[in-house]
Amino acid sequence: MCGCGDRHGEIMRSLGDKMGGYVPETLKAIYDHRPELMELIERLDRVLLEDGALDKKTKRLIALACVITRMCEDCVYPQAKVAVNYGATKDEILETLEICMITGGVPTFSIAKNGISRLFKEMEE
Question: Which Gene3D superfamilies does its entry note (predicted)?
């Protein structure tokens, strides 16, 4: 993570800690190019990072389904990784993918396959 001592770097480190020690590449790129956006992201992500009526694992599985159905290939691995960091199992990830295929069609599997395969390889190590 960022070794910076500024407020925006602190936000990025804090978000990474709350996501199980993982900082997505997109978040790092935002920090590198528009660090002031870290404050907005921190406010927006609060709903995903804390338990509420839904626990944060369930929220991440919903977020995973959303990014898959929205066809954001680069978003799949980060959402799935954080879901696993929050306790999601391989079966829960696969069931989420099945829901995406029902609601978004078979192309959602094509979008998800690389990110999910990468994550499952890590889980086996």
Answer: AhpD-like (1.20.1290.10)
B/e letters for 18-37, b = 16+ CB within 10 Å, e = fewer, are: bbeebbbeebeebbeeebee
The mean of the pLDDT values for the chain is 93
Q: How far is CA 72 from CA 20, 62, 64, 114, 115, in A?
A: 22, 14, 10, 12, 11
Q: How many domains does the chain have?
A: 2
| Whether residues 73 and 85 fall in one domain | yes
Q: Is the pLDDT of residue 74 over 60?
A: yes
Asked if residues 16 and 2 have their Cβ atoms less than 8 Å apart, the reply is: no
Q: Tokens representing 31?
A: 């920090």
Stretch 104-115: mean pLDDT: 95
Range of the domain at 10: 1-50
